[in-house]
């Protein structure tokens, strides 16, 4: 069994795709981050994350975070390439 991803608000998700799906379902995908986050992507590039769901400009890995957890960057999770 895989480990669940827990968010600050107590929500739990099966994986990063489930986080992205929930944020999109609520209509928050393009909402700005409270504070931009520096993402050290798995491809080796670093970029500044400004929206709750966005992609690494180099490899297109999607990163997501719920609105209730966006103020703590440790809750940002990868969801897959172009997810």
Features:
83 residues, mainly beta, three-stranded antiparallel beta sheet, two-stranded antiparallel ribbon, 37% strand, globular
Could you give a quick summary of the protein structure above?
The chain has 83 residues and is mainly β.
Which range best describes the helical content: under 10%, 10-25%, 25-40%, 40-55%, 55-70% or over 70%?
Answer: 10-25%
SSE pattern: EEHEEEEE
Strand content: 35-45%
**Class derived from helix and strand content:** mainly beta
The side-by-side strand order for the widest beta sheet comes to: 5-6-7
Q: For the residues shown, what is the average pLDDT?
A: 92
What's the end-to-end separation, in Å? 23 Å
Q: What is the 3D form?
A: globular
User: Taking Cα atoms only, what radius of gyration do you get, to the nearest Å?
Assistant: 12 Å
Tell me the number of structural domains: 1
How many β-strands, per DSSP? Answer: 7
User: Low-confidence parts, pLDDT < 50 over ≥5 residues?
Assistant: none
State the major sheet. Answer: 3 strands, antiparallel
Structure annotation, total helices:
1
């Amino acid at each position: 069994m895989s480990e669940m991803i827990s968010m600050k608000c107590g929500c739990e998700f099966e994986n990063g795709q489930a986080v992205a799906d929930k944020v999109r379902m609520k209509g928050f995908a393009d909402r700005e981050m409270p504070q931009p986050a520096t993402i050290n992507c798995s491809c080796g590039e670093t970029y500044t994350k400004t929206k709750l769901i966005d992609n690494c400009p180099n490899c297109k890995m999607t990163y997501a975070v719920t609105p209730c957890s966006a103020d703590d960057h440790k809750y940002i999770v990868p969801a897959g390439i172009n997810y």
